[in-house]
Design brief:
This protein is of the alpha/beta class. The protein is built from 14 helices and 5 strands.
Amino acid sequence: MKNTLMFFLVFVLFSCTFSPQQNKDTNKPQPTIYTTPAGDKIIFLDDYYKSFLEAVRSSKNTDSLYRVIIQYPILNQYFSTCEYSEYAKYNFYYPIEDTTGLENYISGINRNRSKIERLIASALAMSNKYLKNDSINIYIIPSTNYLQKTIRRMGGIAGFTVGSKQILLTVDTEVNTWPEMLEDAVTHESNHAYWIKMNFKKMTSSYGRTLLDDIVFEGKADSYAHLFYPNIHCPWDSALSHEDEPTLWSKIKPELDNSDMSLYRKVMFGSAGDYPVWGGYKLGYKIVQAALKNHPELTPEEWTNLDSKKILEMSGYQ
């Protein structure tokens, strides 16, 4: 998932349990909630970060404050029961050691709150034309210095689909392209959310996907976003040169049934000397687009729910 796009940041074991008692002595943040005309909710979690920043100014114990004010409360309140709750915690694993600029990231979200609400509501309404999935909750968090390089490479937005009804978006409004990338991210993640709604219960485990599944999964979401925003160019759209594409494909073709998460991260997000950045995303998009070109009769609902091996077979991709 671009849902996924946050996996590569922190895929490490997270052994602590979520405990509501952890934050009993803190002032509970009051997140702003906007309900769209269709009934979806946009929940701004930046108040948790503001409370953390205020607490840090009078204490140097940033690790403890982060867990008590941000990590445990957010995970308990919003993500403890969603389908990918075990992966949601990876997004909040690392404490914020460097708070430089955090106030600016938070202020940027506050200044653009109305615009964020409008863009998300519009993108959700369009997405719902083909893939019906009501009562979506979209959570907005600010970027940090730790994430700055990654978020800016992604145009100011990073998305992760936590469940069939939960989408988490990290927003950096200091990046000029954030508005258009926000629209793209919402429709991209909406495709993931719909797939989870329709297919999660069929899976043998909470992850249970192969490398081919993941490549096609992202290719479907990118293809869906491009239905609505064909002129928005994401960084991964130009990830592979004409020469790189067959090289990467021949390298991963014997591993398509592999479920190793470390291989997934390398293929999707790049690994110096081994795999180009965003290569898996570009391959997935090419495969899905080839399948749709060969079978224009398929509706978005139909091709979103098709098995990855069937998509590959239909594409004729070589």
